[in-house]
């Protein structure tokens, strides 16, 4: 096996040299796999290689490897450097070989090479130094392979006399050269035949000790006076002291005991995602559509509860535990589910904090009301959302959910500082959430239509694709599983709640959501790279893909999903079924005007496939307070009921209407007015009115020491049906005041590192890096009168006259020049240019570094040199 990058070329001595031997496609693959290397675009390949070896970048790259590629890297970390491909293969497959390893290893090595974690030909594979340091074994950081240090490392502080004693005990020729002694021991431990013969002589107890240390950890404890079987192992360096009371099993000996394997078990193939159940696709789609309709109704119900202003915002941000419980009770769901709906409304831009302003009127986008307690409320976008068809409303929720980094599953847990994580709080963003959601849905999409995945097989696949590395820090927020596993569990639950899946299987709308989102995500990633204007030659490369973001029309994804979902949703109904027990049954979703009026006239008793409303004196009085008359209510029920209006319901409406407004309450502090003075006398005599502190001002008027709202509630609790009145003496019509926040945008997802670049950006970046590398490595020939040749990395230095003369000569000859240039911000760089015109103190030239024609002030050119003929 020989890679094209190394075939026919001299063996590279460094990673930078190997990168120079790669073609443009290979460099683009590296930058796509490790986008952090592009922030900012490196000046040349040497800088790219240096950045690829930094600890932060290597840790990020290792964390994105699958299990087998990571096992290959771990095996290289314990192999001699450089290692051959055959050595690596033996470490993974063992002495007996493994066909699955043999088939999967080329791809794993290719992945490591593509990501610049491994370089060199098949005969000299080298793991980058930082990766070796992270994966190699040490007492402070045990290797994931469970192997200890080599014989040479374990015996590095041992005296020559002690080494001679070990050689004699092992039956080796003595030597006074410590290096030769260690080499002889290493040769013994790596020789399968001789090592087996040595272990055949070992006491049984000694073999038992070696068996316990074979697969790690390789360290053990011994006393100052070890037993005979331990002494036998110490005398032959099968156990080597590392500190007082601590011994280690050398790596070469452990590998012999393991049969040559670096890992106890290798996992070259990903676990298969299996189906737990099979359903007909139509059943899945209809179930998912029902859940989608419930999701839309639940979000609408949530924000209707907060119509006049929701719960207060905690000082540290977020929703209090008490308010979350109240929300859960109001929605008739569990608290974790309530947290999900609240966070979903927030992610979709339908819910936000009002910023501490009352009212919903705005002047030039600024609230005109006075400052008040900061509360959660619906945004103006919620009103627009309500006007959309149900399918479009669901599509907006689904799209927001898929890309959101908000993680409602963490609500109720604690972060690293032992703070409780609250819904809508500031510490719920997890950058891995969108990636995990998409990957889980991708795995579901790989199953046949209608197949529900076995949850554990999905989790096993995700763990194989991104194994939790040994020593990785636990995620904030608690929980026994790693973050990705918990995100996957939450994704499966949330997808079912939202209607992306039905009965555990991905629905047709869920598949469409994945397909359409792939297009949008690519455009957004490209746009994310487009930053402010820069004077650097690489700014063009970083902005090159910004224009592709405009190729996806606004709302295109939502429209496509809505078109697919709409036929699966039932048509809104314009009628209900009235029953004799003062209830009304809505056998499906109702048209909005009907639902809104019925929601005022009756209370929701139960929800589900059919919604049951109950008429009560309080609900009828609520409709009368909203300005409806008894005639209006009778007409409304007769118009929208498919069954005759029951007599008890007619009597209820007439009875409440007859008593409604008989008492009038207005603002003095507050007063009660009634034409029937006997009623006022009855109120004064009632002990329950004591708290209202009433007194008679006139035969038909009572004054109270309570405000009008408290007086209304108090008299209604006593069984009366008072109504409020205006200062003019008319009945006050009570309508809910729609409290809205100032215009708010949906929260932007918190990305996990730089976005993945698109093809346009990659092409521009590779050209810029190539040109910069050409400028830094091409042979240079100084101008004739120039001073001594600059050192590596230094800018050329020539006088202004020499610079002008060399530029003018290059215009006539068409030669390329190497220049040093300092921009307006004082940033120095090297460039390769081909001058086209020199006039007015400026040189116009084709800049190979930026791959475009540019004009440079001559006074900013530090010096110039001709490129060598090489």
From TrEMBL:
Keywords: ATP-binding, Helicase, Hydrolase, Nucleotide-binding. Residues 523-545 have a biased composition (Basic and acidic residues). Residues 802-864 form the WYL domain. The keyword 4Fe-4S does not apply. The keyword Oxidoreductase does not apply. GO terms for molecular function: helicase activity. Residues 576-698 form the Helicase XPB/Ssl2 N-terminal domain. Residues 523-548, 773-798 are annotated as: Disordered. This is Helicase-associated domain-containing protein.
């Amino acid at each position: 096996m020989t890679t094209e990058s190394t075939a026919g070329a001299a063996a590279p001595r460094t990673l930078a040299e190997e990168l120079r031997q790669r073609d443009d496609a290979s460099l683009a693959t590296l930058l796509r796999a490790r986008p952090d290397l592009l922030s900012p675009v490196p000046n040349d390949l040497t800088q790219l290689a240096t950045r690829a070896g930094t600890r932060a970048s290597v840790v990020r790259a290792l964390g994105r490897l699958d299990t087998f590629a990571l096992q290959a890297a771990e095996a290289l970390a314990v192999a001699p450097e450089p290692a051959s491909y055959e050595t690596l293969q033996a470490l993974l497959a063992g002495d007996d070989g493994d066909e699955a390893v043999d088939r999967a290893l080329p791809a794993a090595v290719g992945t490591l090479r593509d990501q610049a974690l491994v370089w060199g030909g098949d005969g000299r594979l080298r793991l980058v130094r930082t990766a070796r340091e992270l994966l190699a074994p040490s007492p402070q950081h045990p290797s994931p392979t469970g192997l200890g240090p080599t014989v040479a490392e374990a015996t590095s502080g041992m005296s020559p006399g002690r080494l001679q004693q070990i050689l004699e005990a092992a039956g080796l020729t003595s030597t006074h050269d410590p290096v030769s002694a260690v080499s002889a021991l290493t040769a013994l431990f790596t020789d399968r035949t001789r090592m087996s013969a040595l272990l055949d002589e070992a006491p049984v107890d000694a073999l038992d000790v070696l068996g316990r240390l074979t697969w790690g950890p390789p360290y053990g404890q011994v006393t100052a006076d070890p037993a005979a079987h331990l002494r036998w192992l110490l005398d032959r360096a099968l156990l080597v002291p590392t500190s007082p009371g601590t011994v280690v099993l050398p790596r070469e000996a452990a590998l012999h005991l393991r049969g040559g394997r670096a890992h106890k078990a290798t996992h070259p193939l990903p676990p298969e995602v299996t189906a737990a159940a099979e359903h007909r696709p139509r059943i899945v789609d209809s179930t998912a559509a029902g859940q989608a309709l419930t999701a839309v109704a639940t979000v609408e119900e949530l924000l209707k509860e907060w119509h006049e202003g929701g719960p207060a915002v905690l000082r540290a941000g977020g929703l209090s535990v008490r308010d979350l419980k109240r929300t859960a009770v109001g929605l008739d769901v569990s608290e974790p589910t309530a947290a999900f709906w609240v966070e979903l409304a927030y992610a979709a831009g339908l819910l936000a904090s009002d910023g501490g302003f009352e009212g919903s009127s705005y002047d030039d986008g600024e609230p005109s009301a006075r400052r008040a307690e900061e509360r959660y409320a619906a945004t103006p976008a919620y009103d627009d959302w309500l006007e959309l068809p149900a399918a479009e409303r669901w599509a907006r929720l689904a799209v927001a959910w898929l890309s959101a980094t908000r993680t409602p599953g963490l609500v109720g847990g604690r972060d690293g500082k032992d703070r409780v994580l609250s819904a809508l709080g500031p510490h719920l963003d997890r950058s891995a959430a969108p990636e995990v959601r998409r990957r889980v849905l991708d795995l579901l999409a790989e199953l046949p239509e209608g197949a529900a995945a076995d949850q554990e097989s999905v989790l096993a696949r995700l763990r194989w694709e991104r194994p939790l590395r040994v020593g990785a820090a636990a995620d904030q927020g608690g929980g026994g599983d790693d973050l990705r596993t918990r995100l996957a569990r939450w994704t499966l639950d949330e997808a079912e709640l939202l209607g992306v899946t039905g009965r555990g299987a991905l629905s047709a709308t869920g598949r469409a959501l994945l397909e359409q989102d792939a297009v949008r995500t690519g455009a957004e990633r490209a746009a994310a790279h487009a930053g402010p204007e820069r004077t650097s030659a690489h700014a063009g490369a970083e902005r090159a893909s910004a224009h592709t973001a405009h190729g996806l029309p606004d709302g295109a994804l939502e429209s496509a999903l809505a078109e697919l979902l709409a036929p699966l949703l039932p048509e809104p109904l314009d009628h209900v079924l009235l029953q004799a027990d003062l209830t009304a049954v809505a056998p499906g979703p109702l048209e909005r005007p009907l639902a809104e009026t019925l929601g005022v006239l009756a209370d929701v008793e139960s929800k589900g496939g059919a919604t049951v409303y109950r008429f009560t004196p309080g609900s009828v009085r609520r409709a009368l307070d909203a300005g409806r008359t008894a005639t209006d209510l009778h007409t409304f029920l007769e118009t929208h009921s498919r069954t005759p209006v029951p007599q008890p319901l007619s009597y209820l409406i007439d009875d409440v209407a007859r008593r409604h407004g008989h008492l009038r309450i207005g603002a003095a502090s507050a007063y009660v007015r009634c034409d029937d003075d006997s009623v006022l006398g009855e109120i004064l005599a009632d002990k329950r009115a004591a708290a209202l502190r009433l007194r008679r001002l006139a035969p038909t008027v009572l004054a109270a020491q309570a405000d009008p709202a408290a007086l209304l509630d108090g008299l209604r609790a006593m069984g009366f049906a008072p109504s409020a009145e205006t200062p003019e003496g008319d009945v006050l019509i009570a309508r809910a005041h729609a409290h809205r926040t100032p215009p708010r945008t949906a929260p932007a997802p918190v990305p996990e590192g730089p976005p993945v670049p698109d093809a346009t950006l990659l092409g521009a970046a590779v050209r810029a890096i190539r040109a910069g590398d050409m400028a830094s490595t091409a042979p240079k020939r100084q101008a004739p009168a120039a001073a001594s040749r600059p050192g590596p990395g230094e800018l050329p230095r020539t006088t202004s006259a020499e610079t002008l003369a060399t530029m003018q000569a290059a215009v006539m000859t068409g030669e390329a020049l190497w220049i040093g240039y300092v921009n307006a911000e004082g940033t120095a760089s090297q460039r390769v240019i081909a001058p086209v015109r020199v006039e007015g103190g400026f040189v116009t030239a084709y800049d190979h570094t930026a791959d475009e024609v540019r004009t440079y002030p001559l006074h900013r050119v530090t010096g110039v040199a001709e490129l060598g003929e090489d």
